[in-house]
Amino acid sequence: MRTFIIRRFIFLIMAILAATLIVFALSRLQGDPRNVMLNVGYVSPEQWEAWGEEFHLDKPLIVQYFIWVGKGFFQGDFGESLKTGKPVFDMVKGFAPASLQLGFAATLFVLFTGIPIGMLAAVKRGTFIDAIGRTFAVFGQALPPFWLGIMLILVFSVNLDWLPSGTRGHDASGFFEKLQYYIMPAVTLGWLASAGLMRLVRSSMLDVLDSEYIKLARAKGVGNSGVIWRHAFRNALIPPLTFSALILVGFIGGTVVTETVFAWPGLGQMTYTAILNNDFPLMTGAVLVFTVVYVFAVFLIDILYAVIDPRIRYT
Amino acid sequence: MTTSTNQMTLSELEKATQESTLTRWMYVLRRWPLIPFFILGVLVLCAIFSPLIAPYEPEKDQLRAVLAMPFWSEPCEEGQISNKFQPCNTNGIGLGKDERVYHFVLGADQLGRDLLSRIIYGARLSLSLAAVAIIIGTVFGTTVGLVAGYYGGIIDEVIMRVVDVFNAIPYLLLAIALVFVLGQSFAVVAFVLALGAWAGIARLVRGQTLQVRHFDYIALARVAGASTPRIMVKHLLPAVGNTVIVATTLQVGSTILSESILSFLGAGVPPPTPSWGADISNGREYLGSAWWVAFFPGMAIFLTVLSFNFVGDWLRDRWDPRLRQI
Questions:
Q1: Chain A within 8 Å of B171 (Cβ-Cβ)?
Q2: How much is the mean pLDDT over chain A?
Q3: In chain A, which residues have their Cβ closer than 8 Å to the Cβ of B178?
């Protein structure tokens, strides 16, 4: 177990290092970062040189990389946004809560649709309910998320006028009024993940229901609900647990799309705008934050998985 | 008593045989994904012969037809057209007698470009991008997977860790950034999409190869003096071929989705090339007045991805049921 954790931790460091390398290479592929700042007007050669010294551009690339990584990880200093002039770290901190809240809402949606629908579909295998459940999954995996969001706006905001079409609802007062703003973005962000989870829960539940110990439980005379909840449910949830990492991947990509469609003031939209504006310090910082969050989450899930299911091989 | 029972059974039998035609069709449809195959067939035809099939030029704007309504709008006189603001107007300039009746089956967008034609040409872009990306991704992923699985040991370890690291970076953000840095063009977008496809294929092929390489016939080939590349291409590749094809088909849908997301965000092949994702992005502005501009291109993406997923699932069940749990 300990070697397993150490191995995973080494991998975690490697993954973050690789990510920083890629992000750094991306920011330099564009050419001299000073060119981005040129749109302010006339720049004297002295100013140009001063910038070079300020951003360490006069040093070799390798040194620049280590300066960037060192400052970033040990001082939390990823430079300043070229557009707003604010420190990248502060901007990320400012936009993060909105994204986290959206992610939380979407996670709730995924858990409260994916697991029950998957279980129902497995227990009622081959029936109409199963068909509905599988349609839910098939749709989720084929609907373009941005289009789903736009169609939800079309139906529920434009035509029915039931839900607000976007933003986080700053003016809204009261819990339920604020909640309305979360419904459509959470569904848009979560449906794909929910579909995947549902399929996994269904197939894993079918496997478990087919196993010997369930047959024994039935033979002993355990009632149907007892078999499902006490015996099958817990074991059937192990495989979907690994899937939670994939949910997160989907969310990280999905936030860019969802936040753009619903004008949600979060990290996804911030990153997207940064890329559009050639704001490379902000972009590299944001991509790095996403990667670090993801890698850490995968690390935790791996360990959790090994703890929950002792049958796993620690390789 | 007996006769009546017999008669009832007979009539029931008759009824059963009548129903069985439907049941048989249901059975065929369940066994063969005929509808997805049909949709994909139409799409491929549209992509190849788009200039012949499309009723209009996809990039030709006609101011008279701005936001023209789809087929259910009332039929107009010659030279007239319905749009959101005015049914059957003639507000165009110089409408001659011989002017043809404009008819937009799926309506027109904010510049008066025929949506059906744009969707047909969009199929060309989406399918060709997906094809190029998938071919690059499959060749690269399969090679990497074969090498890792065949050699095992440290080589396998290094390659799989690279794949893991690759999976750890949020793909969509990397893709958008890469497209903007390298410049928006067909080749760049195809490359970026291939980047998203190879890792999954490599992992599956490697897993399959790990099992196959211990088979006796591989050892015998080695004893017979076959070189490593020969063993890989002639003996291992056919053994993992099914996995490759299944993994590839399952990947097509998500590649098309990624492409549409990129072009929706403005990081795809630049306009005026008709692209489904970009058209939806345009249509967003007119949701209140002309919802069809955003609706139909999205339907096209949805049906395409749905069909590819169905075919992929079907192939997997037939050829490689072991991948089922995924």
A1: yes
A2: 79
A3: 26
